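Input.
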Amino acid sequence: MDAKKGKRDVALYVTTANLTHDLTRESIPFNKKNNQTPATIVLNPAVRYQEMDGFGAAITGSTCYNLLMMKPEDRRAFLTETFSSKKGFGFSYIRVSIGCSDFSLSEYTCCDQKGMENFALQSEETDYIIPVLKEILTINPSIKIMAAPWTCPKWMKVKSLNTLVPLDSWTDGQLNPIYYKDYATYFVKWIQAFNAEGIEIYAVTPQNEPLNRKNSASLYMGWEEQRDFIKTALGPQMKAAGLTTRIYTFDHNYNYDNIESQKDYPCKIYEDTNASQYIAGSAFHNYGGDRKELLNVHNAHPDKELLFTETSIGTWNSGRDLPMRLMDDMREVALGTVNNWCKSVIVWNLMLDNDRGPNREGGCQTCYGAVDINNSDYKTIIRNSHYYIIAHLSTVVKPGAYRIGALGQIEKDIIYSAFENVDGTYALVLLNRNEKAQAITVSDGHHQFTHDVPGKSVISYCWAK
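Output.
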């Protein structure tokens, strides 16, 4: 969205829970005189919080399969609408797996035969992930890509660190410390292999959901293990290879899966200066606990960044009930994480089909995508709540923007966040959870506008200073 094209206007997108407005683009004029409503929001750009990295979704093997089943012109149209900052909603962040995930087409790593000399990208990368990423990069060359493994190669696994008995399983197990350096080499080789394809990896986490032993591909990695792996192997080897890829720790739930010894996981790692020097921050999911933990971690270590990297909708949380999910996900995931210092918001699968797949036994068979595509024609697409919440952020809040101060006398069920973009525009993303419409006035100190916000709606505003 280009708000500078009409400097006397405010550009906005509107989505109502009943879809009478469906990411509908509109514009409204600035007020010519002071006519504030009882509900007024005043921006304060002098107060700056975090710099924003971007918003997006995961490009999994299942997502890529569905995208590549589309006709090329249909796929291009969808990817342009999703990722283009000029012709679409400007999604700006992608998450991918290093090796398989629970939404890969098979279980594998890039070094299933023992010995790092056997490292090689596999068909899922070369035939699915990389072609899709390359097409997205032609649409948005500045997209950020972060990556995480669901498991190390099985030959690096043991049942426990006490016995060091090998474990030949995709699920569970721990990383044998004798393979820390080999596993760090694995990361370096994987990043370099993608770089060689013209795909820059902006960030990694050492392990997706390190406290989850039950995923179809998983590895348990307690905070002490992750600390030691980062400080003795991953950090030094990435630095020696000249990689600028950022490392984020944790990548799991707010409640640390209720494992008492793992509470404050990232903070415990930060306390080790030899590990902390390599770490940009920590990443969180919301499958357990309260987002207030983000604020706790920020307050304890304000020098470290926060990312929100995964959430899903499915049959367990009424994922197809858009009126409910749009309101809750905008409150908890989008604005809730951003207002608690997260620099990015990333949801899980960008695209699944109408049968919630392709999926594998042991993985999630009850998940919906940010969008679902009909597998009878691979053309008909239904947007779900996660697509809407990312679109409402990314269309007006651009990478490099700062979240800024904003105060107002408003209804309690109106939630918002304000931003200053690097191009000289302001952005405001607002949720009205009330049934009734609400007239609001927004002022930046130089301009002001009034808007009748529909009940049960999300609005994204953008205007030039």
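Residues 1-6 have pLDDT under 50 and may be disordered.
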